[in-house]
């Protein structure tokens, strides 16, 4: 999968955010891909701005290759978490984490209530994000700061930071507003210094008042999180070590799917649907909004 990562800069952030947005609400069970029997997760905020067609397509391509070689013995959930780990390694240098396998694929998408546990990019108070992360077992301010450190890569659609741009209350928000007024398809790097490398320059942007998302700016305005933003900005080795540990812990949220299967006919439908055509109402990868907007 390294050739696609080298040729498509949207893949790494797309895979990392697919991993987070699948695991955080209701365990790592590849439910984020499902379009049946309930409303697809990709239609709920904040998923609809982050699901990249290229990342979706890569996971399905990997599933086909693995199943052709080994039979239906590896779940879409396992394929996603391994792909996300390799994406992190590709853009993060020394960042790596163990990934025990053996997950099952979920039988239904997460509910809107479960997906709402992911903080919105429009969150203005760090306290709101801290509470949501604590509900998933990440109850230290440093953990919130580390997770949002993934905003060091990727690009955001104007819609995902419209609230910040429209306020025009500082030089950077006015720049964002100008870009989007002049180009509705503008993709803003979440970290304009090193947009394709997972590093600590994102934290420098936050402290300089140049976070793209409202939730980014919230980290710098709360003393509980600001101190950790400063720490990781000044200690990149600690960031790499701690981010690795945290990404490894993410797949333990709620312990994985208690009931599930290994999807045989594609990552986008459960086996009961059968091998035929897709389900009416499926959101095709080409219709996804892109890899830009971050979740929090």
Automatic annotation (TrEMBL):
GO cellular component: a single term: extracellular region
Functional description taken from the UniProt entry: Removal of H(2)O(2), oxidation of toxic reductants, biosynthesis and degradation of lignin, suberization, auxin catabolism, response to environmental stresses such as wounding, pathogen attack and oxidative stress.
Domain Plant heme peroxidase family profile: start-end pairs: 1-264
Reactions catalysed according to its record: 2 a phenolic donor + H2O2 = 2 a phenolic radical donor + 2 H2O
Co-factor remark: Binds 2 calcium ions per subunit.
Cofactor(s) demanded: Ca(2+); heme b
InterPro entries: Haem_peroxidase, Haem_peroxidase_sf, Peroxidase_pln
Example GO molecular function: metal ion binding
GO biological-process terms attached to the record: hydrogen peroxide catabolic process; response to oxidative stress
The UniProt record lists the keyword Calcium: yes
Entries under PROSITE patterns matching the protein: PEROXIDASE_4
Record organism: Urochloa decumbens
Positions annotated to bind Ca(2+) 1: 22, 29, 31, 41
Binding site for Ca(2+) 2: 191, 194, 199
Similarity comment: family membership: Belongs to the peroxidase family. Classical plant (class III) peroxidase subfamily.
Principal localisation: secreted
Full protein name: Peroxidase
Disulfide feature: 23-28, 76-267, 158-180
Residues noted as binding substrate in the record, renumbered to the chain: 119
Keyword tags: Calcium, Disulfide bond, Heme, Hydrogen peroxide, Iron, Metal-binding, Oxidoreductase, Peroxidase, Pyrrolidone carboxylic acid, Secreted
Subcellular location per the Swiss-Prot or TrEMBL entry: Secreted
Annotated transmembrane regions: none
């Amino acid at each position: 999968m390294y050739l696609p990562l080298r040729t498509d800069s949207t893949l790494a952030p797309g895979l990392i955010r697919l991993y987070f947005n699948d695991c955080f609400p209701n365990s790592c069970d590849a439910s984020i891909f499902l379009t049946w029997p309930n409303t697809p997760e990709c239609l709920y905020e904040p998923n609809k701005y982050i699901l990249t067609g290229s990342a979706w397509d890569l996971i399905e391509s990997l599933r086909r290759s693995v199943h052709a070689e080994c039979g239906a013995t590896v779940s879409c959930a396992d394929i996603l978490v391994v792909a996300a780990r390799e994406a992190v390694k590709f853009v993060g240098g020394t960042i790596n984490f163990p990934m025990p396998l053996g997950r099952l694929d979920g039988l239904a998408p997460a509910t809107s209530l479960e997906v709402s546990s992911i903080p919105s990019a429009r969150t203005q108070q760090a306290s709101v994000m801290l509470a949501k992360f604590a509900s998933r077992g990440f109850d230290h301010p440093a953990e919130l700061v580390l997770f949002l450190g993934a905003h060091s890569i990727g690009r955001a659609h104007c819609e995902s930071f419209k609230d910040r741009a429209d306020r025009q209350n500082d030089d950077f928000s006015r720049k964002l507003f100008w870009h989007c007024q002049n180009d509705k398809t503008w993709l803003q790097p979440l970290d304009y210094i090193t947009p394709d490398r997972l590093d600590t320059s994102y934290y420098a942007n936050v402290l300089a008042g140049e976070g793209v998302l409202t939730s980014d700016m919230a980290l710098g305005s709360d003393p509980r999180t600001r101190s950790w933003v400063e720490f990781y900005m000044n200690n990149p080795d600690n960031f790499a070590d701690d981010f690795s540990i945290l990404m490894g812990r993410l797949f333990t949220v709620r312990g994985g799917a208690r009931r599930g299967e290994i999807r045989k006919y594609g990552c986008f439908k459960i086996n009961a649907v059968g091998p035929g055509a897709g389900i009416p109402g499926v959101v095709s990868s080409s219709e996804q909004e892109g890899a830009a907007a971050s979740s929090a």
